[in-house]
Structure formats: C-alpha cells, structure tokens
Amino acid sequence: MSGSVSVILDEICALLDTYKGRDKILRTLCYSTKLIGGVHSNKALAEKFLLFSKHMSNTRATLRLLDDLPMLKYNLEYGFGKEEPDKLMAALGVTTNVIDQVYYPIEKVAWLAENRLVTGVDNNKWDTISSIFWVASIYLTLMRSLRYVSVLQKHKTCVMKTEENLFSPALEKLLARQNYEILTCVRLCLDFVHAVNTLPKGFLWSSKLNTWHIGLIATTSSLLGIYQIFAKRDL
C-alpha cells in the first residue's frame, strides 16, 4: 500500500472512529443521495437513492437518542460561559445550550410517535416543535459565530498595529481562526436555510424547497463540516 493511500485510509478511519465524524459521514451520504434522487431522470433509480437517503436519516435519528447525557456533560462544563471573550457570546452560548438540551427529549417523543411506540401523540405536532427548536439553535449559534468573527477582527487590528512582522506566527494563527469561523458562519447559514424549510408553510421559505435543493444545501454543509474537522487540528 502506497504512503498516500495509507494516509487517506488512516484519516477516514480516524473520522469514523468518532461519533461526530461518523455522523458527518452519515449526513453526507443521506443528503448526497437525496440530491441524486431529486435530479435523476430514471424514476426507479431515483426512488432507490431516496430510500437510501431515508434510511441514513433514520440511522442518524436513532443515534441521537443517546445524545442527552453527552449534551448535559458539555453544558455543565460550559456553565455560564466564563471562558467566552465577552458577555454577549456567553449569553448566546448558554441560551443555545438550554435549547439544545430541551431539543433531545422533544425529538425522542416525535421519534416514539413516528415509530408507533406510543399512542395518543400527534407526531406532526412534535416534529414541528423540534423543528422550531432546531431553527432557534442554529440561529443563535450563527449569531454567536458572527460575534466571534467580529471579536477576532478587532483583535487582529490590534495585533497588526503592534506587530512589526505581519507574518508573525501569532497573527497567522489569528487569521486561521478567523477564516475557520467565517467558514462556520457559511455552514450555519446553509443549515439555517435547510432548517427553516422544515417548518410548516407560511414562515419565510418554509416547505418551498425542492428535494434536490435540500440535498444540495445539506450536502454542501456536510462537506464543509467534514473539512472543518480536519482544519480544526491545525488551530
């Protein structure tokens, strides 16, 4: 096995060895096949791609049933965001964490109702509630990321005024972090467009995107997410 192939294989396996990495792979498979199914001219083949996409989505939903405790652990460690650069980012972070923590039980109820494991529960109602929480979480996370980009820009301006060498390691690291956060904002914007579309008709562009639109938007977001997993190592 050549060195380059071995490196690529190692990177793929390292990605699959983590929950986050595996979820990104499943998400990419889910929405790339949805994209293909949405544009393929062969109806029978398109239905197979869409069926595969549905199974990948169901797999991700099942795995998320175990996310409550990891989310709780993260929230307890985050606390009131004392490590954040300013109070606004801390407030946005705490609010987002609360929304995310509540989201998982709501999604569980929707999952139980969808799979007919509980009776007397309106699955559509709980799906709508979970979508609202999803939209709110992405929006607040986007606002926090935009705020962080602004904070980094101010910091960069201060460093450039004091640093004689514009190619100093400190400045290069700061630029890399800012570029990473800008990419995060782009990814969150794509996710926000996708999330809003899951809401009932009548709110912005909800329920107006075609299957291939959703596939394209979410696939692009997923690929950016995978790239960021590797890019974060250099930060």
What does this 3D model show about the protein?
It contains eight helices and no strands. With 235 residues, it is mainly alpha-helical. The relative contact order is 0.11. The mean pLDDT is 92.
Observed structural traits:
79% helix, 8 helices, 235 residues, mainly alpha
Q: Report, as a whole number of angstroms, the end-to-end distance.
A: 30 Å
Give the number of helices.
8
**Helicity range:** over 70%
- The parts where pLDDT drops under 50 for at least 5 residues are none
Shape: globular
Structural class: mainly alpha
% residues in beta strands: under 5%
Major β-sheet annotation: none
Radius of gyration over all CA atoms, rounded: 20 Å
List the helices and strands and how they pair.
Blueprint: H1 3-16, H2 19-39, H3 43-63, H4 68-78, H5 87-114, H6 123-162, H7 169-197, H8 211-231
Helix pairs in contact: 2-3, 2-8, 4-5, 5-6, 6-7, 7-8
Q: Summarize this, please?
A:
The chain is mostly helical and 235 residues long. It is 79% helix and 0% strand.
